[in-house]
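Lab notebook, bench 4. We co-purified these components, and the gel suggests they stay together. Before we commit to crystallization screens, I want a quick structural picture of the whole thing.
Request: model the full complex, all chains together.
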Amino acid sequence: MAKMNVDFDRCKGCGLCTTACPKKIVELQTEKLNKKGYYTAVCIDDDACIGCALCAMMCPDCAITVGGDNNG
Amino acid sequence: MAEKSLMKGNEALAEAALRAGCKCFFGYPITPQTEISAYLSKRMPKVGGTFLQAESEVAAINMVYGCASSGIRCMTSSSSPGISLKTEGISYIAGADLPCVVINVQRGGPGLGGIQPSQADYWQVTHALGHGDFHALVFAPASVQEMVDTVTKAFDLADEFRMPAVILADGLLGQMMEPVQFDDAEIVLSDASKKPWAANGHQNKRKHNIINSLYLQPDQLEDKVAERFKRYEKVKAEHSEAVADYCDDADTVVVAYGSTARLAKSAVEAARKEGMKVGIIRPVTLWPFPVKQIQKACENAKNVLVVEMSMGQMIDDVKLAINCSKPVEFYGRTGGVIPKPAEILAKIKEMGGKN
Amino acid sequence: MPEFKRPHALADVTTHYCPGCTHGIVHRIVSEVIDEMGIEGDTVGICPVGCSVMAYDYFECDMIEAAHGRAPAVATGVKRANPDKFVFTYQGDGDLAAIGTAEIVHAATRGENITVIFINNTTYGMTGGQMAPTTLPGQVTQTTPYGRNTSVEGFPVRVCEMLSQLSGVALAERVTVIDPKNINIAKKAIRKGFEFQKNKQGFSIIEVLSTCPTNWGKTPIEALQRVRDEMIPYYPLGVFKEGAVR
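Here is the predicted assembly.
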């Protein structure tokens, strides 16, 4: 189960989350543009995610939630 | 009613504001209105209100904006140069549909001008009290008692129509002492209970209120302004006011407002004594301008004389009111010089001679 | 497992801010403080003119939009009318340190019991990146195309240092939001500001060194680095004044 949930259409692809991840498993994907035309952030290794939420803390758009049942 | 007391215009006006429930006053010293601040700095703490001397006229009007946003009756006062500084805030207040009262005790201009009485801010207050499409209610009392009576009306109408109201006085009215009477009801400072739009904390009981004048979509801004102008039509229909004397059979009708109207009335009465058919009409509201009342007063006149303490500003509105259907002449003094009744009488006689 | 959710006080809408603009982070931590103190229903926010002009749509508390630079005066009016409400202004550097200098200085010296969130990104973002009072010496902007020349344009204003000289100020602290550690510090500072208000302690200002990737011509990640390399050396982080909470 993914611990990091990215709201696909709210993500602006700024990449600030990628700078905060201690496991270096957050990246901007390059396959699918969202409605606004951004490549969004993804967790590339759900099993390695420790759910620390530092990615969410860095997100200026509140597009990342971690844990719980709220997946944006 | 309480007993009559002798009071200076500025102080009487300040006391009247308290009695109208004005809870907060934000001001900045400027002659000839400073007594309003001085008086309220003494009185406000005694009745549980707030007096605050701001760092500038700009700050004072923006404090009014904030206080009015909270749904509380509030006021600021100044004189001509200070009003120029307040126009930014007044425009925002109008754009955000907020009620408040602004006092202008006019002095001579332009620039620093002088400190003696003047009516040279007529154009500003009626036509250009800030940028954008809007009006403020404008009252022009002619006596200390009328200043007192006008304050409550100004607050009430400002609340009813959610727009700024201006009391346009001048140095003469502000500084003169006259007997005044207040009704002796207890002072009750305003609260926001009747203002569901106020931004004063939603208490988790409603969606958040937003006080704002920004509309980036042109059609939205147009709708907003159009709605406001619909309200203005109602104000125009119901709240324009003027006082006419001796106009029914007058050949010459004098139009003057504020303290100048009292001087002009002396001249009119002197002319009547000499057998001349002269009347006078005094606009009590300058916006809305009492167009119908002026039309009626001038119906049978041969000519019209506008008297102002300026180079002639209201005269334009008088000409428009009567559609330039008869000659409209002007007599005025400016720069702080007060026109004497004898000078006005001489002008009336000159116009009579032309008929 | 820790949970991370949007705070209630932050409206569930997409902001108009550019990708990587740190306004969004500051909005969120202000909202988290409002949530944690349980004061959304008792809070009135004042937004400025600048990029955050439409912040009234982003906070769920009552909001007022002020004229350029006048937010501290507007906040004064709100606070004097409602002394028991929490009042905060949210202002940029052009708004607060140029056109609104008189208003911020006098609100501070009066000890006006409000909290000011001051976003310093060394430029006028909304109008397209002109020189701000906080633009660094040598910084190229639209109106300093050859770099800010201090012999012509003068020197940047260090707002926290300046205001910390005033007796009415209870808290003047400079923070940044360039990484999670600093975000935590920033949030604590904002919380302190609101607590000072609660205790009627006086004026609090939290200056947040922020980014403007668009007008700096940098990627969002490069912009974070510029804050570290260029801004923090000129605008040191830390507490410049802090009064004891009563």
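Strands of chain C lie at 43-47, 62-65, 86-92, 115-120, 169-176, 203-209, 238-242. Worth comparing against the SEC data before the next meeting. Chain C has one domain: 23-242.
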